[in-house]
Amino acid sequence: MNKIVSLFRSKCSSGQFEQLMSSHIDGLFRQAYHYTGSHADAEDLLQDLLASLYPRINELKSIEKLQPWLLRCLYNRFVDNYRKKQRLPETENIDDPAIFNDIPARTPAETVRVQVEINRALHTLTPSQRAVVCLHDIEGYSLPELVDTLEQPLGTLKSHLHRARSQLKKQLELQPFTELERL
């Protein structure tokens, strides 16, 4: 991600683009990572987005709610890339187990195992389900905020969220906690 920031610092002499985007980059990268599941793909997705937005800096200044708009642009870019990948032959992907660094576990091996399981489960969801789960449950956006961001009706978002949670629950085969795991 530092490469992305340094690229735009070098290209934008006045610093206007950097100043406008600096408070949004980390959140956009985090969301891109949740969508893609790997640092490299998240950086590529964010770089594509920023490269397409850079020439439109004057438009960006006039947008009232920039964060939801940027998240929507990121989601649209992700869906476009997802569709392209569906048409291309599948290549082997090495999962990055660092998706959820704050999941408590008893050993580092257990932490990695849980992270890989969650990452795999998230990638079984459709792009729209994954977007709603990541934005609502992981990033903490409310459903009314997501209505504006994802431009979908509230009922559709609730349906996607419910189906995604049900599918994740089945995928992860949640087990009851032991006393030690609750601490």
Observed structural traits:
183 residues, mainly alpha, Rna Polymerase Sigma Factor, Chain: A, 10 helices
What does this structure look like?
- By secondary structure, the chain is mainly alpha-helical.
- The protein has a domain at 1-94: Rna Polymerase Sigma Factor, Chain: A (Orthogonal Bundle), CATH 1.10.1740.
- The protein contains ten helices and no strands.
- The chain has helices at residues 2-11, 16-36, 39-53, 57-62, 66-87, 108-122, 127-138, 143-150, 154-172, 179-182.
How do you describe this structure in short?
With 183 residues, this protein is mostly helical. The protein is built from ten helices and no strands. Helix 5 crosses helix 8.
Number of helices: 10
Question: Helix content range of the residues, please?
Answer: over 70%
Average predicted local confidence, pLDDT: 79
Q: Which stretches of 5+ consecutive residues score pLDDT under 50?
A: 179-183
If you consult CATH, what is the topology of the domain at 1-94?
Answer: Rna Polymerase Sigma Factor, Chain: A
SSE run: HHHHHHHHHH
